[in-house]
Amino acid sequence: MEHITLLIGIVIVTALVFDFTNGFHDTANAMATTISTGALKPKAAVAMSAALNLVGAFLSVEVAKTISGGIIDETAGIRPEVIFAGLVGAIVWNLLTWLAGLPSSSSHALFGGLIGATVASVGFDAVNGDKVVMKVLIPAVAAPLVAGISAWAATKLTYRLARNRDEADTAKGYRAGQIASAALVSLAHGTNDAQKTMGVITLALVTGGVVAPHSDPPLWVVVSAGLAIALGTYLGGWRIIQTLGKGLTDIRPAQGFAAQTGAATVILASSHIGFALSTTQVCSGSIMGAGLGRKGGVVRWSTAGRMVAAWCLTLPAAGLVAAGAALLADQGDWGVAAVAVLGLAVSGAIWLVSRRKPVTPDDAAGSPAPAGTASAEPVGVVTAALQAVAPPPAGPVATVAAPTAVTPEPAPAPVAPAVAATS
């Protein structure tokens, strides 16, 4: 019993570490456009987001129930070692995509990790396939599309209503609206993402016999998960804020207001019915929709392509890492210890690489890049790998076709910055 109690404690700590990485990974969801348009200063924005994430964690437990008793069958012989391995897979993928500055889904990293570890340790029968399809995969496809279309329509309507007004005169009002809508997104994020960690901890307590199956998360679980995600949010994921705020499209205050309002509506509705969707995908879809909704607006499809590639890779990649960790953890105490050491080593290595070129709040708040300059964004090792599976941007094709492109031999040029600029 002491071993099980200690192992459950390790799982709980690991789940809170994942919750922390979820916080700084998803700060950009609520605050990227608010920071990029100057509606709020970076530090004030993340402080407000952190506080509202904490409040949102107490508003509902429907998503937590989906995690603790929906996707994985907790009565099928799931042990705490399996949950631990799933969390390690999710954390490693979160940190890799953070290093690349890609707004991938922390939620899908968690789902992939849990499913991969469960399949490797127990088998496919322990995964509720219908729940995965209905409450994870379908929302993953539908939510960003709905949010994008909503933001596109809202942006069109906003500019039409204000067509006889000078944009500079209306910007102040839209910035105020952005602050309110960003607050709503942060609150919605707390109602959805903080609950995923609550669900994982509750699942661990169920598998260890501490609480009964299908139980609601205990109050101390709600409080600790809310505090962990709030702390991560406050520290700010400046790399991803930089990508969403100015690497995907050039956002103006009216667009930011439309994008955030559409995203908050979709997230809150999904939380109410227990859909554990990806808030990252919803907010990214809203930003792209807002970018297309303004006349003359530009979406940098090279960046969008890398993001979509990361979305598609998240479930299987986190699942594969978690499956390997589960097979190792099944070997006994030494296996669990080995997974912990390897997880810490990989996380430490990613952090050391990130220190070579840190991204600061000032970098994230910088002025947007001119339209059509997607190639100017930093390219790191992981980003370069993801670019290989993403649709290539149109720019290089035109460069190769130009008569002057043969002489400079452009192919070697991106190689040196690809390593040196890793951030």
Observed structural traits:
single chain; 0% strand; 423 residues; globular; 17 helices; mainly alpha; disordered C terminus
Characterise this structure.
This protein is mainly α and 423 residues long. The chain has one domain (2-376). It is 73% helix and 0% strand. It is built from 17 helices and no strands. Helix 1 packs parallel to helix 9, helix 2 packs across helix 7 and helix 10 (253-273) packs antiparallel against helix 11 (279-293). The radius of gyration is 21 Å and the shape is globular. It starts with a helix and ends with a helix.
Ordered list of secondary-structure elements with their pairings:
Layout: H1 2-36, H2 42-56, H3 62-71, H4 80-100, H5 106-121, H6 129-161, H7 167-207, H8 219-235, H9 238-247, H10 253-273, H11 279-293, H12 301-329, H13 333-354, H14 361-364, H15 381-387, H16 395-401, H17 415-420
Provide a short characterization of the protein structure.
By secondary structure, the chain is an all-alpha fold. The protein has helices spanning 2-36, 42-56, 62-71, 80-100, 106-121, 129-161, 167-207, 219-235, 238-247, 253-273, 279-293, 301-329, 333-354, 361-364, 381-387, 395-401, 415-420.
How many beta-strand segments?
Answer: 0
Low-confidence stretches: 367-423
pLDDT averaged over residues: 76
Terminal residue distance: 44 Å
Main sheet: strands, sense, barrel: none
Structure classification: mainly alpha
Helical proportion? Answer: over 70%
